[in-house]
Structure formats: structure tokens, C-alpha cells
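Pinned message: reference record for Nickel pincer cofactor biosynthesis protein LarB
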Amino acid sequence: MERKELRNLLERLSAGAADVDEVMTKLRGEPFRDLGFAKLDSHRALRQGIAEVIYGAGKRPEQIAEIAGAMLADGQKTVLITRMSAEAAAVVEKTVPLSYHEMGRVGIAGEMPRPDGRGKIVIATGGTSDMPVAEEAALTAEALGNEVTRLYDVGVAGLHRLLSHTDDVMTASAIVAIAGMEGALASVIGGMADCPVIAVPTSIGYGASFGGLSALLSMLNSCASGVSVVNIDNGFGAAYLASMINHIGVN
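Predicted structure (C-alpha cells):
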């Protein structure tokens, strides 16, 4: 059960539109559901505001299908599945209503929610090669109920490309800046924006980039204030944090 649903139920109880037995039935669910190979945290949305997400890598397609099906059966309207292969998606979609996005390796079971955040989240990349990580971030943010603006291939090698989107940068509630190579995009955006900037280093670059470590260290050493950094290629983690920022003050 999500917070909004619980609040609505309690308001109905207070107004006399619902009885105690109805409320007790809704709240009777266990804090987790044991599937044998997995324990679903069914109270996470109530506790944290965002329901549990399925990490697809390393799980058998049948396991993903059973977990997603159980979540949907328990009333979760949107189930986000990250790091999901196309082969797994082909199996899961036979039993679960699934929308699969191959570039970001993201599956969304159920329905995509309407945006209910305070504003918009901007997802920006240094280059086209960063788009798989960016799509993981963008789809995650959308699945968590955010309006997303994508600014792809706006890196520092051609700064005028980013400057042509100054209005988008200046009106965002949160920005996810994704870049490999030397990771300079986060610092540039951090010097322009008046909102939190979440930097994502990617494993894109030549030999001395060390699989994204060079970009990670550059972003950690950014001289721009208001820039935080997540792990290499972690588009999901960045979008999750951006969504939390965009939902501050939203019931």
C-alpha cells in the first residue's frame, strides 16, 4: 500500500465513508511476502514513499516474472525492473504485462504513472555513447512519477549545444548529469543550475579512463557547489535520488 492510498483510506474512515473492518483488512498484509527464493518488501512504499524495484541482472526470467506478478497482485500499479536483458523480457512478457526498453535495459510491468512531482527532472549526457545509462535514469524517473526532459549529446566538446538549453537547465527541480571521458559535464551544469545536480560517471572513454574511474574522480573533485556523485553507470540510483528531491513536499 502506498502512502497516498493509506492517507485516502484514513480520511475516508475519519469522514465515516469507510468502516474499521475495511481499514483493518487493508492493513492486515504482512510487512513482507515470502516467495521462497525472494522476500518482497510489501511495506516499502508506505515506509519510504517508493515501492520495491526489481534488479534483473542475475535473476532467472521465471523468478523476475513471479516477483513482478506477485507485486502486481498485491496492488502495486507500476513495477520497475532494471538491468533486464531482452531475453528475460521475452520470457516475462508472456505472463506479465510488460513494456521493455532495450537501450536502458529497463522493463516496466503494469502501468506508467502520471507525473506528480513538483517540477521536472533533466537528464543530460555528454555524448551519445552515454545514452544507455541515461535511458536507465530517464525511465526510472518516469516510472517513479516524474516529468523528464532529455538533453543528450550536450558535452563540453561543443558547449554551445548545452547553452542552447539554458532554460531547461535553469527551470529543473533536479538534474542528472551523465558523462564518461573526464566527466566535465557535471561541473559545467553545476555552475549553471540552482538545483541539485547528481553526477553519474560512465564507463565510456579511452584506456586511461579506467572503466569510468577517471570520470568518477573528476566528478568527486568538482569545484561546482551542489554536485553529488553516484557510482559508475548507476543511472537508476541517480534517478531515484532525483525523484526524491522532486517529490519533497508532495503528499
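Pinned by admin. Summary line: The longest strand covers residues 120-125.
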